[in-house]
């Protein structure tokens, strides 16, 4: 790891915040995709029954 000197805390904090935000965005995307897939399957199931 490079010697960050006096800037170690701000730099490492920025990395930590960035990684946390990426994890949150990926998690939200996965949850949204699951909800959309379930809704789509529900609609397809209803259409299959009605036809």
Shape designation: rod-shaped
Given as residue ranges, the uncertain stretches (5+ residues, pLDDT < 50) are none
How helical, in percent, are the residues? Answer: over 70%
Number of strands: 0
Taking the alpha carbons of the first and last residues, their distance comes to: 63 Å
Give the helix/strand layout.
Blueprint (H helix, E strand, L loop, with lengths): L7 H43 L1
Quick overview:
The chain has one helix and no strands.
What do you see in this structure?
By secondary structure, the protein is mostly helical. Helix content is 84%, strand content 0%. The protein has one helix and no strands. The protein has one helix spanning 8-50. The longest helix has 43 residues, at 8-50. It is rod-shaped and about 65 Å long. The relative contact order is 0.07. The mean pLDDT is 92.
